[in-house]
């Protein structure tokens, strides 16, 4: 019997047999952290992901790919510990495997109360690589407006955000001097 997170918070959506067994004294299944939806990690460090579910009595925790396929240990690459923690080890760019390092996973917890399934968790490895952020060249006549654009390489754009602009090594901070970075006089 499987009751997903979406069903667990709406008792009427869970099968009656699971709801009845979950009310038994000392028997339960629950989500420790059901907000875990994405894990991004550096290939040079690896990652440890605990299954976000638990139970009483202790639940058997298992990991799966979003397709429902069981995952298996891959020596020095991926391991599921006895406590239900999924570990992806550090790896070199040449060892990247999208099936392992860029995929959706979920875990289940099962005990005498039944079985629950976590939401899918997006697991994505990123590579540390040097990059340069630069300002696009603009020309403008004195007294006119010039719009500057910060150019961030597409390979890191998802992970980098512009937090300030500088003029002659002095930060231009929004709200000070009455302007925003886009309208400060340069």
Blueprint of the fold:
Layout: E1 3-4, H1 5-8, H2 16-22, E2 28-31, E3 38-42, E4 47-49, E5 53-56, E6 60-65, E7 78-80, E8 86-88, H3 98-101, E9 102-111, E10 114-117, E11 121-126, E12 134-135, E13 150-151, E14 165-167, E15 170-172
Parallel strand pairs: 1-10, 3-11
Antiparallel strand pairs: 2-5, 4-8, 6-9, 7-8, 9-10, 9-11, 12-13, 14-15
Characterization of this structure:
By secondary structure, the protein is mainly beta. The chain is built from 3 helices and 15 strands. It has helices at residues 5-8, 16-22, 98-101; strands at 3-4, 28-31, 38-42, 47-49, 53-56, 60-65, 78-80, 86-88, 102-111, 114-117, 121-126, 134-135, 150-151, 165-167, 170-172. Strands 1, 3, 6, 9, 10 and 11 form a 6-stranded mixed beta sheet that branches. Strands 4-8-7 form a 3-stranded antiparallel beta sheet, with no helix packed on it. Strand 14 (165-167) and strand 15 (170-172) form a beta hairpin. The longest helix is centred in the first third of the chain and has 7 residues, at 16-22. Residues 15-122 form the Ig-like domain. This is Down syndrome cell adhesion molecule-like protein 1.
Summed up:
The chain is mainly β.
Keywords:
2 domains, mainly beta, 3-stranded antiparallel beta sheet, single chain, 6-stranded mixed beta sheet, 3 helices, Immunoglobulin-like, 186 residues
Stretches where pLDDT falls below 50 for ≥5 residues? 4-22, 177-181
| Number of structural domains | 2
Radius of gyration from the CA trace? 24 Å
User: End-to-end span in angstroms?
Assistant: 66 Å
CATH superfamily of the largest domain: Immunoglobulins
The backbone outline, from C-alpha atoms, is elongated
The CATH architecture of the largest domain is Sandwich
CATH fold node name of the largest domain: Immunoglobulin-like
**Structural class, judged by helices and strands?**
mainly beta
């Amino acid at each position: 019997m499987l009751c997903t997170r979406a069903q667990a918070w709406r008792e009427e959506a869970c099968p009656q047999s699971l709801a009845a067994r979950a009310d038994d004294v000392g028997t339960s299944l629950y989500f420790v952290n059901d907000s875990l939806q994405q894990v991004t990690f550096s290939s040079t460090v690896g990652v440890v992901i605990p299954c976000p579910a638990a139970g009483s009595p202790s639940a058997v925790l298992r990991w799966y790919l979003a397709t429902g396929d069981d995952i298996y240990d891959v020596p020095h690459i991926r391991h599921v510990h006895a406590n239900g923690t999924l570990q992806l080890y550090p790896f070199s760019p040449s060892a990247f495997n999208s099936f392992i390092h860029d995929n959706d996973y979920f875990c289940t917890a099962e005990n005498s109360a039944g079985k629950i399934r976590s939401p899918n968790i997006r697991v994505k490895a990123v590579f540390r690589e040097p990059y340069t952020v630069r300002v696009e060249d603009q020309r403008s006549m004195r007294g006119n407006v010039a719009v500057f654009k910060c150019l961030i390489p597409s390979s890191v754009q998802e992970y980098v955000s512009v937090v300030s602009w500088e003029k002659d090594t002095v930060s231009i901070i929004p709200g000070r001097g009455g302007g925003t970075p886009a309208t400060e006089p340069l």
